[in-house]
Amino acid sequence: MLKKFLATLALGLAAFGFAETSFAQAASDAASAVVEAASAAAPAMEAASEAAAAAAPVINKGDTAWMMLSTLLVILMTVPGLALFYGGLVRAKNMLSVLMQVMVTFSLIVVLWAIYGYSLAFTEGNAFFGGFDRLFMKGLWDNVAGTFVPAATFSKGVYIPEIVFAAFQATFAGITCCLIVGAFAERIKFSAVLLFTTLWFTFSYAPIAHMVWYWMGPDAYAAADVVDAMNAKAGFIWQMGALDFAGGTVVHINAAVAGLVGSYMVGKRLGYGREAFTPHSLTLTMVGASLLWVGWFGFNAGSALEANSFAALAFINTLFATAAAVLAWCLGESLTKGKASMLGAASGAVAGLVAITPAAGNVGIVGALIIGLLAGFVCLWGVSGLKKMLGADDSLDVFGVHGVGGILGALLTGVFNSPNLGGPSAVADWVTVGMIAPDAYSIASQVLIQAKAVLITVVWSAVVSVIAFKLVDLVVGLRVTEEEEREGLDISSHGETAYHR
């Protein structure tokens, strides 16, 4: 019996072992089949995944955070930076009028930007004006995807929310219009400022911004056969190949020409040329200039639209060029007047900031230093020698600093963008994002393109400004009465004073 039991047990174990082996083999075969099938399907799945990724842009959180910070910095430049810089330069009886003009003008433009300005500047239309796709900021929320619409940056596949881009550009429009008020400070009607600003913003700022900065974005350049079609949809000056990193033409030259026209059409202040128009608080002017310098890092570095190496380049160039301009202006004053002044140092800082604006991410560090040094000397001449030649009462030297500095910076961008002079060069092919090679870069050709962009901006802004000022004069009048001007605009226009006597 025992032998029989043992024999049966052995047969059972053998059978179980065979079955287990068979099951394992079957499972192994099935697993191998699954692996083989998965391997065969992997390329198709990978392609589908890549297609899905391309179809659904992912917004970069770091870039978004940087752009929101940059937007705040530009607001800091304007209110309180520019307001205090300008306010300290006028006489005490006009301090609040300048603060009021800056703050209310900025607010007005931000509202107009939301209503129609953004759409006119940054949607597809023609080479000079955008369309109406973003009136009242419509279309910024994607109802199908349930998310905010992404906006392209300058790198393929990198996006930020379009609402952030729209807010950033709103601050640019706002500060540009505020720059103009310094040219005719102390004698213009408050209502005239607001009406002129509305007209000029609509017909000069928005179209110039569209001409210089509007394009279809890097991802639109998917293949060589679409390049011409994409270029044809861009702004007129962008199509020319002009380089303007953060607003040499759009902001500074544009505003400065409007200010110069305004200083002529509004007329000179009472007593101009006979009385001393001494700044009432250089302390406030210095504080304002310092806030401008701090905020300008958002203005320039933020224009990279990403927290990348070009933002870092614009950041350090803004630091170095401004410091160089301060020293140059002080040296120039010492050589011509025997003393360097606080007003000169503050003005030099602004001159450097203006000149480096179009070049910030387009030139190397040595180029930035040279631009800053030249800006200090050239803008000092702009507020002295050139101002006398023009014969205009540009109250706070808007053209002498922003016009002269902007033109200088725009032209020198074409020089120091050259990779042979330490510049990063420019994109030659947006399909591959390839840069112009050193042996192919032509300084003469790029400077000529820059000069054309400057000329277009000067003529466009001048024509619009003349028409706008004339219309405003016909509707509400440009200038306060002689009695009101003597009393000061703080009391006569706003019924208050900056300082209690």
UniProtKB/TrEMBL annotation:
GO cellular component: plasma membrane
UniProt GO MF annotations: ammonium channel activity
Domain of life where this protein originates: Bacteria
Start and end residues of each Ammonium transporter AmtB-like domain: 65-499
Keyword tags: Ammonia transport, Membrane, Signal, Transmembrane, Transmembrane helix, Transport
Membrane topology per record: Multi-pass membrane protein
Localization terms from the record: Cell membrane; Membrane
Residues annotated as transmembrane: 65-86, 98-116, 163-185, 192-216, 236-261, 282-299, 311-331, 343-360, 366-386, 398-416, 447-469
Keyword flag Coiled coil: no
Signal peptide extent: 1-26
NCBIfam families: amt
Family: Belongs to the ammonia transporter channel (TC 1.A.11.2) family.
Protein name: Ammonium transporter
